[in-house]
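User: What would this chain look like folded?
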Amino acid sequence: MTSEEQPAAPAPAPTSLANRYGGQKRAMGGSFGRARSTGGTTDGRKRRRNLLIAALAVAVAFLAWVATSAATGSVSFKDIGYSTPDATLAQLDFQVTKNPDSTAACAVKALDSKFAVVGWKVVTIGPNDASAGTDGGHTTAQRVTLRTESQAVSAVVDNCWLPSANK
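Assistant: Here's the prediction, encoded as structure tokens.
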């Protein structure tokens, strides 16, 4: 039997990295983005200047937003303490900080040992004099008595808001 001559296997490709992954890439810095007629620096300076101006404009806008949001009416509160004189009452002492000319509303609640609400009340805190409380009338102390369904083990302020701001 005679065997037919088979073609030889193709020669293996060179195993250099350039053949596997392609040639070396051009650097991004190069002459990309530079003015070709002036030697290459004016476009880069203009781009940096424009970026700096844009960053400063964003920073000024952010500061203006922070300043105006703080100037609009806001109210904050701080729990001071509570007492439970008997199984049907709870007293809560807290401080409210607001603009002295504004009226605030605070929701207060009394909780039992399983954190269930056993008493709830919305308290309205009207405008106050500059001589009332501290900080020129901004912070005032409040004491609220809540009726409870069962023995309360704590009382807290749930939230405070400015009712006139929602109209």
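The two ends are 105 Å apart (CA to CA). If you want, I can go into more detail on any region.
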